Amino acid sequence: MKLGELARDYLRRAEVRVRSAAGATASKDYPDAVRFSQEAVELSLKAALRAFGVEYPKEHDVGGVLRSVGERYPTWFRDKIDELAEVSADLASKRALAMYGLEAAGKSPSELFGVEQAEKALGVAKMTIGLVEKLLRKTSS
Question: Could you write out the three-class secondary structure of 83-141?
């Protein structure tokens, strides 16, 4: 599979996660909305890296890698890398909490995440996908 095809597949899967996050938000399943949004951001950023031939570590937060290779990207995308890296780090730090809660403190995921966090996570996931879609579209033409 070519890098561009792999990147587009990652982005397609990110879009599925955003739809799942929107559905979870509508169903008031806020922890899952955060989790799905995190996965959407992760897949989107990995698509951006793959499209430019960048190998990344098998971890959930690839913002640092994106920052380290920022010079490879067009200026308009490069200008967004710090924001994207911050989004990636923030959501990656919430990934396990959204799945398992704070077991040691006896807090469930539903006690930790509410509508505000879910809507914010969904918003930044949509923003990330939009930027990566534009990147892939402009680099494939």
Answer: HHHHHHHHHHHHHHHHHHCEHHHCECHHHHCCHHHHHHHHHHHHHHHHHHHHHHHHHHC
